[in-house]
């Protein structure tokens, strides 16, 4: 499947992820699992169809408190998008990590969202290995590498970036997003 990690750090979010596409004997482009859209960065695991739909959806820019935006704007939009694909989706069909305004959120397949007091998040089949590595002091890159060592669903090239860098590369002005929040 995958391993995607997000760690809140110094007002930004560090992101690490693998490039393996399990079950298709292929590796993915670096932006296939983690991408910027609508002023937020998404890490998406699960069925590829959800990832594609979210990547190309017209998502609203965050305009208020990050948690309020997730609850009041993002989750209803995700529900609309995902229900078109499969209204009876299971909890493991799709899982997301979202970085917005220097804050990370985990969103499960039922579209419930969570915040972690440690600011460390991971999804995918290697997530337990990655979270254990982070708790032991590993870097984001090392955490995904450790997950790849122990999880057959994690592999390929390991990518590391910040949410701000991915937003900037996608053409979003990070300062403008902070002003809009």
CATH architecture field: 4-Layer Sandwich
Q: Taking Cα atoms only, what radius of gyration do you get, to the nearest Å? A: 15 Å
Indicate the mean pLDDT: 88
Domain unit count: 1
What distance lies between the first and last C-alpha atoms, to the nearest angstrom? 34 Å
Biggest β-sheet, characterized? 5 strands, antiparallel
CATH topology: Glutamine Phosphoribosylpyrophosphate, subunit 1, domain 1
Q: Which helices and strands appear, and what pairs or packs with what?
A:
Blueprint: E1 3-9, E2 12-17, E3 20-21, E4 26-27, E5 34-37, E6 40-46, H1 48-56, H2 66-85, E7 94-100, E8 103-107, E9 113-114, E10 120-124, H3 127-135, H4 140-150, E11 159-162, H5 163-169, H6 174-180
Antiparallel strand pairs: 1-2, 1-10, 2-11, 3-4, 5-6, 6-7, 7-8, 8-9
Helix pairs in contact: 1-2, 3-4
Describe this structure in words.
With about 180 residues, the protein is α+β, with helices and mostly antiparallel strands. The protein is about 35% helix and about 30% strand. The chain contains six helices and eleven strands. Strands 5-6-7-8-9 form a five-stranded antiparallel β-sheet, sandwiched between helices. Strand 5 (about 35) and strand 6 form a beta hairpin. Helix 1 packs across helix 2 and helix 3 crosses helix 4 (about 140-150). The N and C termini lie far apart (about 35 Å). The mean pLDDT is about 90.
Keywords:
181 residues, alpha+beta, Glutamine Phosphoribosylpyrophosphate, subunit 1, domain 1, 5-stranded antiparallel sheet, 4-stranded antiparallel sheet, 28% strand, globular
Short description:
This protein has 181 residues and is of the alpha+beta class.
């Amino acid at each position: 499947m995958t391993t995607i990690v997000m760690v809140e750090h110094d007002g930004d979010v560090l992101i690490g992820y693998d490039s393996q596409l399990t079950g298709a004997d292929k590796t993915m482009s670096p932006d296939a699992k983690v991408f910027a859209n609508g002023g937020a960065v998404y890490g998406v695991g699960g069925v590829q169809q959800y990832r594609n739909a979210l990547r190309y959806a017209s998502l609203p820019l965050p305009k208020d408190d990050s948690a309020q935006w997730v609850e009041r704007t993002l989750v209803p939009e995700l529900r609309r998008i995902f229900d078109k694909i499969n209204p009876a989706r299971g909890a493991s069909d799709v899982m997301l990590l979202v970085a917005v305004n220097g804050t990370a959120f985990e969103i499960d397949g039922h579209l419930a969202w969570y915040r972690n007091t440690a600011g460390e998040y991971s999804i995918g089949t290697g997530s337990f290995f990655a979270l254990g590595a982070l708790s032991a002091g590993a870097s984001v890159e090392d955490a995904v590498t450790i997950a790849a060592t122990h999880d057959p669903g994690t592999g390929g090239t390991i990518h590391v970036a910040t949410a701000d860098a991915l937003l900037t590369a996608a053409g979003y002005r990070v300062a403008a997003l902070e002003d809009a929040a």
